[in-house]
Amino acid sequence: MPTHEVLNQPPPLRNYNVFEADRVLAEGLEREGGGWAADRARQLGAIAGGEAIDWGMQANAVPPVLRTHDRYGNRIDEVEFHPAWHRLMELSVGHALHALPWREPRPGAHVARATLFFVVAQAEAGHGCPISMTYSAVPALRMQPELAREWEPRFTSTHYDARPLPAGVKSGALCGMAMTEKQGGSDVRANTTRARALGSGGPGGEYAITGHKWFCSAPMCDAFLVLAQSERGLSCFLLPRWLPDGTRNRFYIQRLKDKLGNRSNASSEVEFDGAWARLVGAEGRGVPTIIEMVNHTRLDCVIGAAAGMRHGVAQATHHAAHRAAFGKRLFEQPLMQNVLADLCLESEAATVAMLRLARAYDRGAGDAGEQHFARIATAVIKYWVCKRWPVHAAEALECLGGNGYVEESLMPRLYREAPLNSIWEGSGNVICLDVLRAMARGPEVVDAFFAEIETARGGDRRLDAFTGALRRELGRFDDMETRARRVVERMALALQAALLVRAGNQQVADAFCASRLDGDHGLAFGTLPPTVDCAHLIERARPQL
Ligand SMILES: Cc1cc2nc3c(=O)[nH]c(=O)nc-3n(C[C@H](O)[C@H](O)[C@H](O)COP(=O)(O)OP(=O)(O)OC[C@H]3O[C@@H](n4cnc5c(N)ncnc54)[C@H](O)[C@@H]3O)c2cc1C
To answer: Which of 136, 215, 358, 423 is 20 to 30 A from 507 via CA?
Structure first.
């Protein structure tokens, strides 16, 4: 029965261009050398703010299902997805989000790809997992040139081919990664999976892999980079789903994980029973080989977390602009302005850091300083941006009040996804310890990090003072492991502040330095000092429909 008129509910945030609505992203894309991809980002932004929102809802409402056997009892080990999952995959593969820098190795390619990935991740995050792993596998695979010659054209194809068939007959292929075992994920040296040489073994040689993996996401990928113990120690292998003779490899999916979030994506437990694989890189050098992949997936964890924060900001500022309480729109209420502005600030700092980091991947090949910077900044930024996301998501959700607690608002999905990026590819502590390891290797890495911060010297006195204190803190070696989170957090804040000062928006840089460096801030979001121009920060971030 139509009993009443619906009042004071915001219009849905859809049919908007995710890229065009994001000034911080567009400015950063240009600044970091990927401006040539703006048209592509615009095209993708329209889809991400339109039909892809529905695909994302459908793919998460109907999660993947494991089919271990066919109707006749034959093992098939296939996973069935909702058609919306395949639409999302087609979209991202079609725009080369899994391969752009390898297909088009031009300046700014990693920055361009980061921007495109950031845009699509706001529509749906789960399908980003196989996209990210395929992108990241290529640099590791290149350590075995004949395997790269065979597989790289498949992994970089922009045709999404979901058919469960041997990769050689498909128009495109995807790659996963299987490192984590039941007894340990961070400490992969504890892996028990065994690799037995078939024939003489050696780089590119054939091996039989026996053991298990406790987390193997996107098991419908066509091949996986897998760690296993061979005679010479932990080694990296390329393990395809199908054998060269066209039969299935001995790769058995035991079950799919029932996960907190990331539900559109399948994450499985697998057993290898003498599965056929080929060695990538030198035997016994599995970690240095797969680390190439891990570094790129860490970059993607940053992109995903920054995208999640941006999505939270878009939803929260949009809602507050259209919803009134106590006689004013929410975004005119001073306390709500403080919360929103603080969320916008955190999101902008994450976006700016993500794009600068992506540029280090663009420049790293020919520039030792950028390589050192990428080595340490990947871990520093990965730690901090991923750590901030869950708190940010919870606060953004609250800006929508009760509506934010309801699935249709998309905020519960964002909230459930948020802790994941910090667990993936080195959980918080492990990443902080990795920063210490990077700094212990030699002074070049620390020098490259501070050189980046020093480019903003004189731009803000609080940043200069904070950097000086940080140098002193790094100069002390007592209790370093216990202090690792404190130290890495401060490194991240100094870097973000320097990037914001350099980016040139005075109000944003000033608010960041006052609150994050100078201590003029509480423990919760919404505690910016009254000197901050909150309305400016909100208007800068709010999507204008
Ligand atoms: C949804 C999902 C999908 C995944 N997909 C994949 C996949 O496709 N492939 C894959 O290989 N893995 C995958 N993983 C596994 C993931 O990479 C691991 O869970 C992660 O590396 C942590 O390993 P763990 O779970 O064994 O935890 P542990 O290694 O047991 O760590 C537990 C906790 O202890 C901390 N810790 C560990 N060592 C130290 C130390 N020395 N000092 C202080 N603290 C320490 C960690 O930071 C963490 O907080 C996935 C995980 C999830 C949740």
So the answer is: 358
